[in-house]
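A common beginner's mistake is to predict each chain separately and then try to dock the pieces by hand. The better habit, illustrated here, is to supply every component at once so that their relative placement is modeled jointly.
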Amino acid sequence: MTFTIPIDNGDALKNAETDSQRTLYPYVTGTSIVAIKYKDGVLMASDMGGSYGSTLRYKNIERVKAIGKHSLLGASGEISDFQEILRYLDELVLNDNMWDDGNSLGPKEVHNYLTRVMYNRRNKFNPLWNTLVLGGVKNGQSYLGMVSMIGVSFEDNHVATGFGNHLARPILRDEWHADLSFEDGVKLLEKCMRVLLYRDRSAINKLQISKITEEGVTVSQPYSLKTFWEFQAFHNPTAGAQGSW
Amino acid sequence: MFRNQYDTDVTTWSPTGRLFQVEYAMEAVKQGSAAIGLRSRSHVVLACVNKAQSELSSHQKKIFKVDDHIGVAIAGLTADGRVLSRYMRSEAINHSFTYESPLPVGRLVVHLADKAQVCTQRSWKRPYGVGLLVGGLDESGAHLYYNCPSGNYFEYQAFAIGSRSQAAKTYLERRFESFGDSSREDLIKDAILAVRETLQGETLKSSLCTVSVLGVGEPFHFLDQETIQKVIDTFEKVPEDEAGEAGEAGEGEAEAAVAAAPAEQGGGGAGDQDVAPMEM
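With all components supplied together, the output reads:
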């Protein structure tokens, strides 16, 4: 996919340099993030894969990071852009801490800051190719929101990116309810991640579940889901689709 | 303060380590009409005396809303005050836009103080001639700050600036320890009483003062004349009615003040003519 804008001042030589600075397509990408609000805060699940096109090249990428004291950021899409966003946020959190005045950036503030950044980049035709999930807890209030690469931003009780939008959200719509316990929340996320593992070709069976509560952030060790491949439908996958294609 | 050979430039130090131009700027604050601020744990009240150029004109606006959770009262060169208020509004709204969250007042006053400091270190600038009482809320509660032309800022439980503010400060010094737990109504009453102190004898009317309140769950707003008059009425009866009466403690105070007023006002009038018209 290419993004080109007509620059008509006749100087192809000068423009070439500026063109090569714009993000045209993603190279190393992470797949879905799924996140839900639960009783004590927010749970976020992601696998540890980084795809290089159709190759599953990197298998140890952490796509969820803690931001400041109150937030968790998960990203799907271009990994290098995610790393750049982490650098922006690092600076933001540093300056916030340097004030040392009892005020601190909460998840709402970080979410809105990211929305501004993403939207601004989109306006310059140089997007950060990510869909970000921002979750957190501050003063007892849980917060969960999402920002896309074009700056579309919203909050909800459960969010998912990429394939998760299509495969995980229907499950969440049916089975999410307020005040899930930690165990139920993890079970629900694992159910979504299992479906993604079966059906999303860029998913790998190595995931981390991150939790944020008033006390702070915990990121689980990577682990795998049990899968079952003996479904009848898997034995003869094209049984229902006779034909030349 | 007397003229000396080190006071022409703001960038010239005196041998005793003073910047006279900055100190002269602080004098300008003392010439302005009084502004008073006090805070409790949850509310901040800003009040000021309405001074008009003449009977024909309207009075100068001295209290500005910066955001729903921040207000500022000024004393000194009002033009400088207006410009700084606009800067504060701009900072507050930019922060609100980027973070969807109110700018903590403590950070705003630091920006303001840094801006004032720049003017004390450039030969082509002059210090702002206005003192600002900034009241606002942030995560840690209600705050009141005083920003000085020198670029210093201080946090206060209660403070008064401008002409005859010493009288108000004396009143506040006696009472400030109770302000932290004051109710909103008591805080407003104390503010108006402090304003009365600066009037030194002149009858306190709601037309003479402007009062603003902000607090937890209460965005910044001005109190209307009626509300202010009601508060005044609780502690001050109309002097003409009381002329013949004696023996009521509260009224006794007002009477004595009224009796002293004619002598005061003669002296006060002459003093006012020394105030430059641009300072209010």
